[in-house]
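Exercise: predict the fold of this chain.
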Amino acid sequence: MLAEFIDTFDLAPSDEARYAAIEAEPDLTGDPRIDALAGAIAEYLAKQRRLGRVPPWTGGPARRLKDPWFTTSSTSPALREYLTFASPGEFASRNIFTDERPLRRARETSGYR
């Protein structure tokens, strides 16, 4: 679903249509990680696509984690240190530690676009 949303967002005909796609706050799922991730993704997209504004709902307390979440199954201290350093601010500020390009798609890394 996330990949489909990103594709739809990127294919929107204008910045206004892109902002409209993230403007309304999605319902909370009850899973703190998913709820925080939704806020991080919306803020990240707004900033990366230079929409000029970030939906206010992304800053709510339910959109932040109390404990760190490393989005890898590895327990390697070196990898966790890298993710702590590399995570975009929109994710790190919510205690989510991930790749430096968290929404990168497989086709972007394989040379196909």
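Check your answer against the key: The two ends are 19 Å apart (CA to CA).
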